[in-house]
Design a protein that fits this description.
Layout lengths: L4 H25 L25 E5 L3 E5 L4 E4 L7 E8 L5 E8 L5 H8 L4 E8 L2 E8 L2 E8 L2 E8 L2 H13 L1 E2 L4 H4 L18
Antiparallel strand pairs: 1-2, 2-10, 3-4, 4-5, 5-9, 6-7, 7-8, 8-9
């Protein structure tokens, strides 16, 4: 039995249509795949959040600030005439922020940063207490610094979301001219104590 020319064309068209419909159905049911050129930025990244600044630190040199309780503070102030204070705020993983307040020979943040942070890039600005401060990025480091009356106020830490939030928490809560707790209780701090020799009368 031989098929007529019209029958063969009809069968061929029917076959082509059934293949096309089957292919379309499979394509619609298959999950969409990313092309090689599309970035994988649609994957969610966990947000790093710093705990609330719930502890208050008061320094005997007359300043205070708030910080989160997951950090421990150690005083590493050199015994010299340059530093007022140098503190290390450490996280459990060993990373830390250093806060230092010291005398410098520069009278502005711009002159200090031009000389001391030559390879840095500006990263913004904020207030360090009531003093205007600037932020700088060094390789893997974030520096927040302010200069007032030839005194440098500086925070330095790793440059990541967690420590950026800690910089902001400390800077925003920084208060200068705070009377330490022992002075408020009527005792003078050891650094303010003056000893006078007794007069002996014979």
């Amino acid at each position: 039995m031989t098929m007529s020319k019209n029958s063969r064309i009809t069968v061929a068209v029917a076959f082509a249509l059934s293949v096309g419909v089957t292919f379309t159905i499979i394509k619609l049911k298959a999950p969409a795949s990313k092309s090689l050129g599309s970035p994988l930025t649609s994957l969610p990244t966990p947000a790093v959040s710093a705990p609330a600044a719930d502890k208050l630190y008061q320094d005997e040199s007359g300043f205070s600030f708030k910080y989160p309780s997951d950090l421990t503070i150690s005083d590493d102030t050199p015994d010299d005439d340059v530093y007022y204070s140098r503190l290390k705020l450490k996280k459990a993983d060993g990373t830390m922020l250093e806060l230092s307040i010291k005398d410098i020979s520069y009278d502005s943040i711009d002159s200090w940063s031009a000389k001391e942070l030559k390879s840095s890039t500006p990263a913004g600005s904020l207030d360090f207490g009531k003093i205007s401060a600037k932020q700088f990025r060094l390789t893997g480091r974030l520096v927040t610094a302010a200069v007032a009356g030839k005194i440098l106020y500086q925070l330095q830490s790793p440059d990541n979301d967690y420590w950026q939030k800690i910089h902001r928490q400390i800077a925003v809560s920084f208060v200068e001219g705070v009377v330490p707790a022992e002075s408020a209780a009527g005792q003078s701090p050891a650094s303010d104590t003056i000893y006078e020799a007794e007069e002996v009368v014979e």
